[in-house]
Amino acid sequence: MADNAVEQRDAHPPSSNTMKKRHYATAITIADDQEQSPSSNAPSCAGKLASELPIVGLGCSSFSNFFSVDGSKSITLPLDPTHPVIIEWMNTVREAIRCGINLLDTAPWYGHGMSECLIGLALTYDNPPDLRNNVLIPLPAGLTRADLIINTKVGRYEADPLHMFDFSASRVRSSVLQSIERMKCEYIDVIQLHDPEFAPSIELLLDVTIPVLVEMRDLGLVRAIGLTGYSLDVQREIIQRSWDKGIMFDQSLTYCHYNLHDQSLFSAATEKSGNEEDEASFASFCWSKGIGVIAAAPLSMGLLTKNGPPDWHPACSELKEACQEVAAQCSRVNVDVADLAITYALSNASIPCTLLGMRNTAEVYKAVRIAARFDDDSPSSSSGQVGKLSVTEMLTRPCLNHQKLCNF
Questions:
Q1: Other beta carbons less than 10 A from residue 76's beta carbon
Q2: Residues labelled catalytic
């Protein structure tokens, strides 16, 4: 399908606004088909996660001046709800919700508060601006707070390197309250420890930061606690050491570890320790402790796109070149590598939700159309093997051959 035809099609809402839902995986199926549930000595007082998630969640880092593709560099706080870019962002949030993408994931770090403030505007602003060609989409009728899953983070904040990270107890408390105020959301569903690999020490997190997260959970300001960062090893250590202290995390958000070039979320540990739990994949490790796992960045922060990653992308030159070669091969058969990458990420039924950044309604409609392909999460639809779906298999399965991929 030609690019202009794709753009024309994605300018219009999909025929269905029902986003497929999945449940968290909280037990692992091992080779002999026996299930391993969380151990009986699990810490108590775990939080409450949503019973089901949309298979696509809205990653809200795009709603900030971190990116300049849509003129957002000129936007500052407080947000002007009559600004064309702000209207577009509010419409993106509202149309995502209307299409069933009811999980919003943000952070104080995204635009240094801008993303959270945008969510607050999108959920509450009810005066359509009097600007020609800029129409504010209404919120779905009857929408309540309980219909939404709103997750944010603590720990990373300012652009100034000296003030970028703060894992102190006082900052965690004030950050949670500030996030609720910005988003006007009453409570936070999952509060996540943001980029813990940059903390001064894991001991600080265990002794100071994490107990305050539990305190926020006990007070009802947040429903559940989680953590997110690039390093799976750091997440694993924090989860295990917290578990040993009687503290149970509810959710882990990983990014860039389940995509076309990296499936390490499901890879067994390379070092053999003799301890089955230590050697398990990160996903299996979390599931064995009753921790829900969701994933983000199926496009690997721009690697798996036609235009390639931004200049700041940390990948080595060999990986960047390989991804661009894949993009070129896809183009030769009229396939957008980003569509393929998103399809691959969503194909694993053990990942209940994949976070995807969307800057406009056209990107929402594209995500919804791809997600609509997954109406069967039976074992046969994911080859019966968690994390083992090959690209060849992706392109040759009856429901995912590249001819149908071209017809999105």
A1: 10
A2: 110
